[in-house]
Amino acid sequence: MAINLQKGQREAINAPKFVIGLGWDTNTSSTGSAFDLDASVFILGENKKIIADEYFVFYNNLKSPDGGVEHTGDNLTGAGDGDDEQIKIDLNKVDPRVSEICVVVTIHEAESRRQNFGQVRNSFMRIFDAATNETLLKYELEEDFSIETAVEFGRIYKRNNEWKFEAIGAGMKGGLADYLNKYN
Questions:
Q1: Would you put residue 31 in left (φ > 0), alpha (ψ -120 to 50) or beta?
Q2: pTM for the complete prediction?
Q3: pLDDT, tens digit (0-9, with 9 covering 90-100), for 74-106
Q4: Are 75 and 105 in contact, with CB atoms under 8 Å apart?
Q5: Which residues are paired to 135 by β-bridges?
Q6: How many domains does the chain have?
Q7: Cβ(58)–Cβ(71) under 8 Å?
């Protein structure tokens, strides 16, 4: 049975291989332009910085060099039910220097399309066991991000050799470049 988390809550992940599913719905009538949301993963060391450029996993770099993190590909529309984008995690393959895996969702060309997360609803992040497909944890973003164009959904982090998930739900006005500046 899945554990539903609230913003700020933390929970252990009891599966060595799991999949992060991210989903959302958009208000197509509000801007006249189609939405394209992108999930990205920042793989960080103890210093909260990306351990190497190749450890920034997104639609143009789908897999980390250690094979521990794999993005299944960019979903350009977000149409339909269920996960819009997925990220596969294999903790057995994750580089030992890694202490944190941050998951961020940004709106592609948000400024020119005049879009923000206030026009996005039903956003969620779930973690399910890769072997059984059982949903282990789920976090639904209930906050209204009226001006934000990027949201850090959550992070997976290691403490005392145990991997845990924290529901973050922190919005930011900016894009991928701003997160790269933060984590580089």
A1: alpha
A2: 0.92
A3: 777 666 678 999 999 999 999 999 999 999 999
A4: no
A5: 128
A6: 1
A7: yes
Query: What pLDDT shows up at residue 79?
Result: 66
Residue 128 CB coordination number (10 Å): 20
pLDDT at 144 (0 to 100): 80
Task: Pull the structure tokens for residue 85.
Answer: 């984008």
Domain membership of residue 46 (yes or no) is yes
Strands 150-159 and 135-140: unpaired
Render pLDDT for 16-41 as a digit per residue (tens, 0 to 9): 999 999 998 887 655 677 888 999 99
In a domain, 124, yes or no: yes
Tell me, yes or no, whether 3 lies in a domain: no
Domain that holds residue 112: 12-183
What CA–CA distance (Å, rounded) separates 125 from 122? 10
Reduced to 3 states, what is the DSSP secondary structure of residue 182?
helix
113 lies in a domain? Answer: yes
Residues in the chain: 184
Task: Check which CATH number belongs to the domain holding 99 and give it.
Answer: 2.60.60.30
* Digit-coded pLDDT (tens) for 147-173: 899 999 999 999 998 999 999 999 999
CA distances, 178 to each of 9, 152, 155 (Å): 25, 12, 17
